[in-house]
Amino acid sequence: MTYSSYGDNSVLSPTEQPQPKVGPGEVVVRVRCAAVNPVDWKIMSGGLDAMMDTVFPVVPGWDVAGVVERVGIDTPEWKEGDEVFAYARKDYVHGGTFAEYVTVPVRALARRPESLSWEEAAGLPLAGLTAHQTLTRLGTGKGDTVLVHGAAGGVGTFGVQIAKALGARVIGTASERNHDRLRELGAEPVTYGDGVADRVRALAPDGVDVVVDYVGGVLDTTRAVLREGGRHASIADPSVTEAGGQWMWVRPDGPGLEALAALADAGQLKVPVAETFPLERLADAFALSQAGHTHGKIVIRVGGDAA
């Protein structure tokens, strides 16, 4: 699926593209499943044009799970037939994962977790790495109390599970209808909105050690509940740096994916899948993502049966 100009979902169309070349330090992956992330349709609308160069026609998509089809020069750790998954973002926007084949730099590649289906594996990389990198860069560990803003969202769901696996106590903000889901993941839920800082303080009177913001617009709350010497980061609010926090955007990271795979295989990380679509219905999948009402990943099935 490609688009040849920025626009809404109507610019997407199925096209025939050449087989991707495989360069040094790369492999070609035959795609089994690829997951939708909001950044995919935001890029398509031109939202990142000031940040990233674009070469049309664009195949969108950054999350992938599939099988190594070919290997490039200097890739001794991979061979044809290996089952892999990746956050396959490149340095410019062009050859993405909503296709039969995609090239992936080996630095971004990891072996598919044995415990996850193709759909689940495809849904983990971008959101899972986002959560993992925010928490680990902040030094989250045993004994910390962590506040997750947007704990029931796509990244927040992973953030709760990863923070628990790192040994932390987790408090998560969400609407009341999602509180039971957060409890199942091991978080103590609080309702967001007016008075949220007071509700967090009621659970953590001495303040929290770590705050991760996955929604934006919550810096005042973060300041109100963070203990002296605490650490915080946001993926949605660049002004966080003015308050001593880190503004972060996820990096492709094969070793990070290996760590997530280990958590999944140990039963400490689950990947909720909301709905799957065939490749030709990518526009419908984008529309579902844009509506913002799903709980779990939206996955595109490209090749083979679910497994």
UniProtKB/TrEMBL annotation:
Q: What is this protein called?
A: Oxidoreductase
> Domain Enoyl reductase (ER), which positions?
7-300
Q: Note whether Oxidoreductase occurs among the keywords.
A: yes
Q: PANTHER family annotated for this entry?
A: ALCOHOL DEHYDROGENASE RELATED, RETICULON-4-INTERACTING PROTEIN 1, MITOCHONDRIAL
Chain segments carrying region Disordered: 1-23
Q: Which UniProt keywords apply?
A: Oxidoreductase
Does this entry carry the keyword Oxidoreductase? Answer: yes
Q: Which Gene3D superfamilies match?
A: Medium-chain alcohol dehydrogenases, catalytic domain (3.90.180.10), NAD(P)-binding Rossmann-like Domain (3.40.50.720)
Q: InterPro entries attached here?
A: ADH-like_N, ER, GroES-like_sf, NAD(P)-bd_dom_sf, Quin_OxRdtase/zeta-crystal_CS, YIM1/Zinc_Alcohol_DH_Fams
Organism of origin is Streptomyces xanthochromogenes
Q: Which residues cross the membrane?
A: none
The Polar residues compositionally biased stretches are 1-18
